[in-house]
Specification:
The chain has one helix and eleven strands. The chain is mostly beta strands.
């Protein structure tokens, strides 16, 4: 949409050493006017050795999306992530709530309300997919009672991720 986008990556370290090597602060700035910028994303990673990376622009069907995705350092495979779509008015966060509704609808229909837990969502914009691992509720542990993965294919309509089709891949026994 004609906006200039800047990643500002900071290396922060102890004063005594003065040679930080890991990028652990990130800001994404969008130029909104002459010498005017708007910060749309800010992350500071102090507690893990998880370097933050540059954002990227990816194709989602006929649209483009600005994506930032970095490990959160936990053992659950989580991410610090965000997604934007641009039009002449500027950046808009992509709304994935219709995808959440599609996952809930599928899981409730096939497994019954309150009989499952939808784990971390994996968002894969280049494949137009969101994946959510389903687990029996109540579960014995974080990795126990796997039912399978709900895969929702979506299309980007403006800043809205609209479900296109929903599939399920059962966990291997």
């Amino acid at each position: 949409a004609g906006f200039k986008i800047f990643d500002v990556l900071y290396r922060v370290g102890p004063r005594k050493n003065g040679k930080p090597t890991v990028v652990n602060w990130k800001s994404i700035l969008v130029q909104t006017g002459h010498d005017q910028y708007r910060e749309i994303f800010h992350a500071q990673e102090y507690y893990c050795n998880c370097p933050l990376s540059s954002s990227e622009i990816v194709r989602v069907g006929n649209e483009r999306m600005l994506v930032t995705k970095d490990s959160d350092g936990g053992n659950g495979g989580g991410y610090i992530e965000d997604y934007w779509w641009f039009d002449p008015a500027g950046p808009h966060e992509v709304n994935f709530s219709p995808i959440g509704s599609a996952i809930t609808k599928y899981a409730s229909k096939h497994f019954g309300p309150a009989k499952y837990f939808a784990g971390y969502w994996g968002i894969y914009p280049e494949q137009n997919e969101v994946k959510a691992w389903l687990q029996k509720a109540p579960a014995q542990c974080r990795a126990c009672g796997g039912l399978g993965t709900v895969i929702v294919r979506f299309r980007l309509v403006g800043a809205m991720a609209e479900p296109d089709r929903t599939n399920f891949e059962p966990d291997q026994k």
